[in-house]
Amino acid sequence: MINHSHYRLRKASVEDIDITFQWQIHPLVRRHSRNSSPPDSSDHDAWFRKSLENQSRELWMFERKAKPLGQLRLDRGDKNEVSILISPEFLGKGYGDIALKLLCNQYGDIDLWAYVKIENVASINLFTKNHFRHQQGNWYLLRSTKR
Question: How many other C-beta atoms lie within 10 A of the C-beta of residue 72?
Fold first, then answer.
C-alpha cells in the first residue's frame, strides 16, 4: 500500500530546468509527447523560463520526500489542459496515478482536459482510471466536482 502523504506537488522553479530537461530528452518520454523530437538545452531552458512567467500556465514538480519524480502542467484556457511527465526512472511504478490524483485534487473546481496519443495505452488507462472520459479524437475530460 502506497502512503500518499509522502508525496506532494510544489510549484516548479528555475532550479528544476536541468532535471526536467534530462527527462524531456529521454526516448521513452519523447515517444508519447505531441512533439516526438527532443528539445535542445537552450530551447528547453527558454520554454521553461517562459512557462514560469506565463500567467495561464502552472508548472508543478511531483516529489516524494523532496526527490523529484515528475512534472505536471496546467494550461488554463478554453480547455484547462493537464500534462503529466514522470521521470523515465519511475515509469510504470504507479507514480503517474499518485501525481494525477494530487493534481486533480488541487483543481477540483474546474474541468480538466488531457490530450493523449491513441497509442499511449498506459496514459489512456491512467486518465480513465482517474475518471477522465474520452470526448473526441485524443481528448479526455474530467468534469469539475464543484458543479
Answer: 22
Long-range contacts of 17-20 (CB under 8 A, 24+ apart): 17/44, 17/45, 17/48, 17/49, 19/68, 19/87, 20/44, 20/48, 20/71, 20/85
Q: What is the pLDDT of residues 95-118, one digit of tens each?
A: 999 999 999 999 999 999 999 999
Prediction pTM value: 0.89
Provide the 10 A C-beta neighbour count for residue 64: 16
CA 84 to chain centroid, in Å, comes to: 2
Q: Which domains does the chain have, with CATH numbers?
A: 4-142 (3.40.630.30)
Tally of residues, the chain: 147
